[in-house]
Amino acid sequence: MRVVLLGPPGAGKGTQADRIADRFQLVHLATGDILRANVADGTPLGEVAQAYLDSGELVPDQVVVAMMLERLTWPDCGHGFLLDGFPRSVAQARALDEHLAGLGTPLDAAINLEVAEEELLQRLASRGRADDNAQTIRNRLQVFTSSTRPLLDYYDGQGLLFSVAAAGTIDEVSERILHAPRDVPRPAPPVRSRPATSGSEGVDIS
Q1: d(Cα 104, Cα 63) in Å, to the nearest integer?
Q2: How many CB atoms neighbour CB 75 within 10 A?
Q3: 206 residues of the chain, pLDDT tens digit each
């Protein structure tokens, strides 16, 4: 099983990703963890990322993509994986699709955790930084929503997107996720010939 887990800050992605990965014996791949591991291990890509970090810049999109795709070639991903925090853009999603198509192992699902904005505000306010206020958090959520909408549309067009209500207890949300692919009919994905392109986004691993 090969899954992408999507959702805004405060939706509980990390908790649910651990549960799904444990249930199906998948490798849980979080973008931040892989970036930090490359930097700590001094890999060629890690050295490139470190140079950007040392100058106070975000790690470029193409470096993040290269790290993630390289990690997917490890033997432990052969049984399946769950991607958490990647892809973050349509450009990254296309690069991922092209890579997996070359391996003959396409994605099985993209699961989107949905939470009402007011609920997210409460969750983030309770664990936020001291300088966070309601408007700051709301702005962060609005930026996330506007940047992620094209990605959701991309996976929806492929028949891979399953949206799950992430309100309620951790167990309740887990059950909804586990049943989502069986509860929603999946149309055949369209044939796509558009080449992968690199986006201009960056990632902060702090």
Answers
A1: 24
A2: 6
A3: 999 999 988 888 999 999 999 999 999 999 999 999 999 999 999 999 999 999 988 889 899 999 999 999 999 999 899 999 899 899 999 999 999 999 899 999 999 999 888 888 888 888 766 566 778 888 888 888 888 889 999 999 999 999 999 988 999 999 999 887 655 444 444 444 444 444 445 555 44
| Of 153, 156, 164, 159, nearest in space to 111 by CA | 164
Residue 86 contacts residue 3 (beta carbons within 8 Å):
no
Which tokens is 166 given? 């992430």
204 in Cβ contact with 58 (< 8 Å)? yes
Residue 163, helix vs strand vs coil: strand
